[in-house]
Amino acid sequence: MSDDLISLNLGENHLRFAKAKNEGGRINIEVLSQQLGTPTFYESETKKVSDETIATIRKNVDLLKLRKKRVNIIIPDGFAYSQIIYMPKLKEKELLSAIRYQADQFIPMPIDETSLDLEILNESKTENKSLVLIIAAPQKLIERIESLSEQVGLYPESIENELSATGRFLENFYSPLSKTESTIFINVGYSYTSFYYFDHAMKLIIDSHSFPAGLAVFLREAQVDVNIDLAKAKDLLKKVGFTEGTSVDLNQILQPAVDALTVELQKFIVSLKTKYPTAAISRIYVFNLANEINHLDKKIAKNVSIPTVTYDPASIIKRTPAVEPYIKELPSFIAPLGGCLR
């Protein structure tokens, strides 16, 4: 981990910057910043959107005085393909060659149009196998992101997805009391949601699942049923959400959206129990844009009968001046903070 490395979370509708380091199990943050309502970079490849995105990033880079810094860029899970699998214990170059040779089994896109990377998460001491995270993204998207970075005066050192960055954060900072149980982390994005299965004994994310539904679905339900604009829908979700006994009851309105999430979660839990028969899921955490839906954690807990809360890293973060403006938004910074730990 280099002292001049910064992390940029290039989200669907936001930018988040972070510069931080692990100091004895606590996070010392030098830079923390976010801008919401950014251009639709992933939806459109037009020059207009690219120029707007460059201008937005440049404005933030100049404000934070981050020019000529090396950057690790984090993209949403929904725009990369990830798989965690066991493979024979080989060197990284040999693993990459093996994956490329069998690309059609791992990657749902032509290999010559794909940017491929892997990370060895764990090597078994008793068996000749490694737990490997495979990440693939369209080469065209990676080239666009590298170009953006260079045009604003940043040097792109790496590009990863939220799963990879979040996994690194949890490996460093999540310390469950029991080693015999496991946790599910729910990363609510804008148009995608991801489930991460964290094994306490291995201290790793060892399984994951993403599906195309996120905060946007909840916003759409609120807009249509309450007949309000997007800004008011965002405000209503954040202040009311699944709170009961309020003047505006969103529970019924948001039911289809939370039902879809619950169905996917239940299917994920069933698949985990099939793969890992001794799995004991003791807790579920929600984070990222789950912070924008009040009491979503309580609704999930009620639906799946597993204790669920928002994952807030405030207790392990040093209260520096950079942190104070975002103290209530820290659950949204898990991935960019993890991106600082490369």
UniProtKB/TrEMBL annotation:
Pfam families the record matches? PilM_2
Annotated transmembrane regions: none
User: What top-level branch of life does the organism fall under?
Assistant: Bacteria
InterPro entries from the entry? ATPase_NBD, FtsA/MreB, PilM
The protein's matches in Gene3D superfamilies, at most eight in alphabetical order, are given as: 3.30.1490.300, 3.30.420.40
What PANTHER family does the entry give? CELL DIVISION PROTEIN FTSA-RELATED, ETHANOLAMINE UTILIZATION PROTEIN EUTJ
Q: What is this protein called?
A: SHS2 domain-containing protein
Q: Which organism is it from?
A: Candidatus Roizmanbacteria bacterium RIFCSPLOWO2_01_FULL_35_13
